[in-house]
């Protein structure tokens, strides 16, 4: 089950476990998801944004159509501040940086994404080194945009794929961990009703 971080009459904030879909997929075997689990406790819950199935961490859900609209507008305006932790292969040359590479769907290998400077949509990720662990590095990742698989593809493009990434990390890095080492640990945004700036945190499990 998800960990409940915060709830009030307008919103619910949860931490999704790795391996659980955010929303239902196609097929009977893909109906179990975070949204449906939250609805068992909060029947009016509506999903606002998503995390990859393999990624763990914070998601906010709205409890009414109006709060869903308000929160969705914030994400469209890129108001929320998101921070992830990841463990990547190797050690980057710098201690912090920025990746700006446009992304699009790799149609022949869906749902994978790819860098495409011509047809891709603008995507930006800022990163900062937290800890060097011999042949790997713990990074804080700050997605400025929210493209699908953005952090995973941008780290691969840097030459430092995220460990345990079965989509993008080459062998043996794809199986160097028992899960994708990517976690959405902090989310900051405006409360959709009170306007209060709120900060939520879910400790990194790896």
From TrEMBL:
It comes from the Bacteria. Residues 10-156 form the Pseudouridine synthase RsuA/RluA-like domain. Pfam families: PseudoU_synth_2. CDD domains: PseudoU_synth_RluA_like. InterPro entries: PsdUridine_synth_RluA-like_CS (IPR006224), PsdUridine_synth_RsuA/RluA (IPR006145), RluA_PseudoU_synthase (IPR050188). This is RNA pseudouridine synthase. It comes from Marinobacterium weihaiense. The lineage of its organism: Bacteria, Pseudomonadati, Pseudomonadota, Gammaproteobacteria, Oceanospirillales.
